[in-house]
Amino acid sequence: MASDRTLRIATRESQLALAQTRLVGARVAAANAGVAIELVPMTTKGDRVLDRPLAQVGGKGLFVKELEVALDEGRADVAVHSMKDVPMVVPPQFALLTFGEREVPLDAFVSNRHASLASMPPGSRVGTSSLRRECQLRRAHPRLEFRPLRGNVNTRLAKLDAGDYDAIILAAAGLRRLGLEARIRATLDDSIPAIAQGILAVEFRRERQDLARLLAPFEHAPTAAAAAAERAVGLVVEGSCDVPLGAFARVAGERIELAAFVGLPDGTRFASEKATGPASQPEALGREVGARLLAAGGREILELLSQPARGGRVA
Fold first, then answer.
1. Residue 127: is its pLDDT beyond 90?
2. Which structural domains are found in the chain, ordered by start?
3. What phi-psi label fits residue 29: left (phi over 0), alpha (psi between -120 and 50 degrees) or beta?
């Protein structure tokens, strides 16, 4: 920490990022008498470039790179991220811990006129930033028209309210953390969410064992196990922003169940796998499911996605 009494937290400047960071700061301060919280807000390239798919300008890492630079330069002690935005490989000088219990990990259907995707008439315009969502939704609702949607949560809601879309799909976790749960008309219970969706992560320089000790009590074991299993799938399948890939782990006692898929954006190719294993070995389960996913057709899907014409958006 900058001093014995101040924890400087790097964060994106979006309302959701600030809300999540304040949540982390408040819990740390409440559990550690005398520790003050100082926010270090910054705008990342991922926030600034909104006119192109994220995959075309560098991928998910653009949401965290500037925050990592602040850690490297000593301008902040820790950074708070939505873990789904963190690349599968973290630079070796950094450590990453989950923070708190996972929020609802499902995708949310948001519309001012319709109760569900199934009730929408053919040709209805549905906005989403995610190839992962689009792949699954095109398979389930081929009569609908899916359009790209970038910007923070409030910007996306404003576009819906302006009539640019008939419905939009957002992460339920973000809406709940912003106090906007009333905007959720339904959750997509049959859709596999993004890797680590709904999980908060705190990043810091690995040599800062004082920070590791400070943050360790906030790590929720089932959430950490789910994150480890899902991210292991991403490492095996080489998940990135232009790969429609999802994984979701449920921890029940000493067992963990993991489901995952990879597909083409238009939903015409789709491979899925699931397995269970001991909750004490989440990475091993994730690697197993990832390998089975590749063998079940995922490798051919990745080869098709590598063709230049198959560019994508953030998962």
1. yes
2. 1-100+197-219 (3.40.190.10), 107-187 (3.40.190.10), 221-315 (3.30.160.40)
3. alpha
pLDDT at 292 exceeding the cut of 90:
yes
Q: How far apart are CA 305 and CA 290, in angstroms?
A: 17
* β-pairing verdict for 78-82 and 200-205: antiparallel
User: Which H or E run includes 244?
Assistant: none
Integer Cα distance of 104 and 176 in angstroms: 8
For the chain, percent of residues with pLDDT exceeding 90: 84
pLDDT for residue 238: 83
Q: CA-to-CA distance for 314 and 129, rounded, in angstroms?
A: 6
Which residues are marked as active site? 85
For residues 139 and 315, which has the higher predicted lDDT (pLDDT)? 139
- Euclidean distance between CA atoms 54 and 33, whole angstroms: 41
- Cα separation, 122 vs 25, whole angstroms: 46
